[in-house]
Amino acid sequence: MERPILEVKHFHAWFGTHEVVKDVNLTLHRNEVIAVMGPSGCGKTTFLRCINRMHELTPEARTEGQILLEGEDIYRMSPIMLRLRVGMVFQRPNPFPHMTIYENVLAGYLLNNIKLSRSDKDAIVEDALRKAALWEEVKNNLKKKGTFLSGGQQQRLCIARAIAMKPDLLLLDEPTSALDPISTAGIEELLQELKKNYTLIIVTHNMQQAARVSDETAFFYMGELVEFAPTRQLFTAPKDQRTQNYITGRFS
Amino acid sequence: MHLNSIKHLRRRQLISASIRGTVLFFTVLTLLPLVYILIYIIKQGIGAINWSFFTQLPRPVGETGGGIANALVGSLIIVGLATLLAIPIGIFSALYLSEHPQGRLAGMIRFCVEVLTGIPSIVVGIVAYDWLVKPMGSFSAFSGSVALSIMMLPIMIRSAEETLKRFPTHLREASLALGVPYYKTILQVLLPCSLSGVLSGIILSVARIVGETAPLLFTAFGNPYLSFHIFHPMHSLPLLIYNYAISPYDSWHQLAWGAALVLLCWILLLNILTRMIIRKWSVRY
Questions:
Q1: Given CB atoms, is A147 within the 8 Å cutoff of chain B?
Q2: Which of A14, A28, B121, B277: disulfide with B214, CB 3.0–4.6 Å?
Q3: What is the mean pLDDT of chain A?
Q4: Which fold has domain A6-248?
């Protein structure tokens, strides 16, 4: 069997003295969509941010345990190399307001001073925008500022910016929570396309979304990974009482 | 009852109208001296403006004509140098304040900036005299620039800090999540996004000090000849206005009015430039 893309072993995370993520163990394989769901404050976003070490922006954050990306301990890598390999899409669309659409897609290269030829640039931009299902809408306006797009388009632009770096893993932190239902449907459809080339981890507080888009689902509750199983199985025959309670709406 | 309420209404309308009148009156009253000063300077100064006014040096008393080329060039050099000195200190301090708003050092910097705002410009001049003119043994444009740059810092730091603080966390995270190192995030995302605010702060601080006289009195000192040497005494517009305005000669008064008009135009232009930059380069978050 192929080597797992991500292995999480006895992973804990704290903010100060508050333990936000408790003893998580998880193995993920390539080209899958994994949903991380759970009620607010269950540690799902913190867990996601630990995978590309964005939690380190919070000074009092601290972790224990291991996360291996293709067998390599991410806490022994430089965070910069790690983030080049693990892309992230945020809750709120955040294209760079001083850059055009074209520059936004290439932002990872431009800001890291990675030199590309003109034709490479064009190819990367077109490929990333096509994969993000945005090419047809913006191909004539590549020189416009990214912030002129609608919310849903901006979020697809951010996805394009992340996949332009050809990451091993793409993290999505509630990517549709700031979007209207139509844009949300568009993004969800896009995730199905993206999984052909990428491995995706999507955090969502929306159960229906988890059920619709993912192959496997992880249910977090109060910092614990309660259950991790193929999505269909988790939603139809949950093993843990707490999962059962959550999906039947007994708490949220 | 019915009549009574109408009477009430009348009274309210009267009060409202009289308050509106009062506000208008005092607004006009504040504008009046400003407009008067503008008109008076233009009226008095316009007669002095001609080609030789900009290109020639002042002539000795008794000779007619002559110009203020030395002061024009001097002002440009002194103010330009002051801006160059103040920009790195001002921008980096503002960056520090916006990046570490809570620290002890930030509190101290903020306090110093506040105190600096309140220091009379003549005192800044004396300090520059003591620090630079005395040890270097000569009045110099450089010491004048240092004095002016100290005067510029508070405005520059405050306006830059305000702009930089408005930079949203989600854009900072967007950059860091792409593997962009912190310093490049600052230089290539935060600063470009804040460019219009930072630039307009710089220009406003220039406009603020371009007419400062006191800090230059015993630093740049003044020079009747055209000089490009920053370690020698140099003339400047405010010094020229000061010297000529207190002189007993009419032709010198005329030059002083002309110089005042030029200074006024510079400040006006700087303000227009600020507005243009804000309109053109501001970024929508």
A1: yes
A2: B121
A3: 91
A4: Rossmann fold (3.40.50)
User: According to the model, what pLDDT value does residue B284 have?
Assistant: 76
Domain spans of chain A?
Answer: 6-248
Write out the two tokens for B228. Answer: 């490009």
CA of residue A135 relative to chain centroid, distance: 21
Closest CB to B170: pick one of A82, A92, A111.
A92
Residue of A nearest to B177 (CA): A83
- Minimal-distance CA residue of chain A relative to B186: A111
Q: Does A114 touch chain B (CB under 8 A)?
A: no
Q: What DSSP line would sit under B161-204, residue for residue?
A: HHHHHTS-HHHHHHHHHTT--HHHHIIIIIHHHTHHHHHHHHHH
Determine the Cα–Cα distance for residues A216 and B159; give it in Å rounded to an integer.
50
pLDDT band for position B5 (cuts 50, 70, 90) = low
As a whole number, mean pLDDT of residues A94-108 equals 95
d(CA B106, CA B93): 9
- B127: closest CA of chain A, how far (Å): 41
Distance CA(B253)–CA(B241), nearest Å, equals: 8
Q: Do B283 and A80 touch (CB under 8 A)?
A: no
Closest approach of B106 to chain A, Cα-based (Å): 18
Confirm or reject contact between B104 and chain A (CB < 8 A): no
ipTM: 0.90
Domain ranges in chain B are: 2-35, 54-281
Neighbours of B248 (CB within 10 A): 7
Question: Is the predicted pLDDT of residue B79 greater than 80, yes or no?
Answer: yes
Instruction: Please count the residue pairs, one from chain A and one from chain B, whose beta carbons lie less than 8 angstroms apart.
Output: 75
Q: Considering only the C-alpha atoms of chain A, give the largest distance between any 2 of them, rounded to a whole number of Å.
A: 56
For A227-246, the pLDDT digits (tens) are 999 999 999 999 999 999 99
> What's the whole-model pTM score?
0.83
Written as six digits, the tokens of A100 are 């055009």
Q: What is the pLDDT of residues B155-209, one digit of tens each?
A: 999 999 999 999 999 999 999 999 999 999 999 999 999 999 999 999 999 999 9
DSSP β-ladder status, A61-69 and A72-73: antiparallel
Interface test with A, best of B178, B182, B199 (most A CBs within 10 A): B178
Distance (Å) from the C-alpha of residue A217 to the closest C-alpha of chain B?
24
Torsion angle of C-alpha atoms A146, A147, A151, A154, degrees rounded to 10: 20
Within 8 A of A107 by CB-CB distance, chain B residues are 174-175, 178
pLDDT in tens, B56-67: 888 887 777 788
pLDDT recorded at residue A1? 58
Quick: pLDDT tens for A156-213.
Answer: 999 999 999 999 999 999 999 888 888 888 889 889 888 888 999 999 988 889 999 9
By Cβ distance, the residue of A54, A95, A113 closest to B173 is A54
Task: Give the CATH number of domain B54-281.
Answer: 1.10.3720.10
